[in-house]
Hints:
Layout: H1 6-20, H2 32-41, H3 47-60, H4 64-69, H5 72-79, H6 87-101, H7 108-112, H8 119-130, H9 142-149, H10 161-170, H11 176-189, H12 208-213
Amino acid sequence: MPDPNVRSFRRDLSRWGRENRRSFPWRETGDPFRILVAEVLLQRSRGKTVARVYERLFARWPDAASLARARVDTIGTVIRPLGLTRRAGTLKEMAAVVDGLGEVPSTLDGLLALPGVGPYAAGATLAVAFDKPAPVVDGVTARVYRRYFGLDPAVPASSDPELWRVVAEASPARNNKEWNWAVLDLASSVCLPKVPRCHLCPLEAHCRWSQAHG
């Protein structure tokens, strides 16, 4: 582990996460398909905007079978607030595959085989829907790990083996969804990209970025 204070990292961030957990509709369901769709929609989209689209989407098509039968242009109209309407066709294809399987795959390889599902969405779905340990990091949550452990911020998160190694080692073996939510919530509200709110951060005392810029 690149930092001797990983135990403090886990303890302090987990405690902060429990006390500051944000509420989103996909965090209040155990339906793997709805969780999977949320993770796909959250790619490059803000949580609050996705929440509104998510509610409209599932009010109209409550499951994989009904979404698979929907028209691509109609799905596109519903998800247009997210700005990437090409995801409409991907969602329809993904729903059709899940409907054909009869369930959302519960393995990393199975999830990655679905249309539109990359490493982050697959790992997040495993953690949230199936409570399985899986490294989860994207461009947003990478800030927390990189700043705390002093990693190079120049490498894209998706292709940074050192980052993924650190995330795998730093993530706890249990309570996976709560842990991933805590990292995301901290990155979204405290560990901001330009002006981080270090004075509000539970990790400040041992964070290498904070020590270097304090």
